[in-house]
Amino acid sequence: MTARIAVLIGSTRPTRICADIAGWTRDVLSQDSALSYQLLDLAEVDLPFLDEPRMPALGHYQHEHTRAWSRTVRVFDGFLFVFPQYNWGYPGVLKNAMDFLYEEWKGRPATFLCYGNHGGSAAAEPFQRVLRGLHMTVLDTHVEAVIGPSDIDADWQLIDAAATLDPVRGQLADIDSQFRDALGGSMGQRLR
């Protein structure tokens, strides 16, 4: 079986560029990888604000939307979260989606690509703490992509995703290698 890595689109804003960035990222990672990189869009998951009465660590989900989210997350072997920096943090919709679950994240390799005018460093730091708090296996490499006003058109869309993001291509190769190493064991051997 091929290991599946979710490239999770962590913004639901109607004018978002996150889906384009995640799609480009998935395409680049898939070019020479034995891993299967697949898009997972929080806009399609459509979770409400956290409404489970019990802590997610207990695993007793009352609502079907939580059980469905749990089933979705469980099919993936690792996660690459893609998200913008909003007001010196990361999107609330992403934190909400993560807060619904606990065991489903635990032990899974994870990293992220964040972006913003300054690369998203203010979002990167708290997000890494959340990954560690969920006991995910945090990869050494993550991406902070600079996307400035000259990269966006009048409709707030990326003019040329490939040209804007090409400087991070080498980091994505490192991420792919680190995912393979983190998956380790017999799966890691098969993927080499």
From TrEMBL:
It is an enzyme of class 1 (oxidoreductase). GO terms for cellular component: cytosol. Keywords: Oxidoreductase. Its EC number is 1.7.-.-. This is FMN-dependent NADPH-azoreductase. One of its GO terms (molecular function) is FMN binding. Pfam families: FMN_red. Residues 4-141 form the NADPH-dependent FMN reductase-like domain.
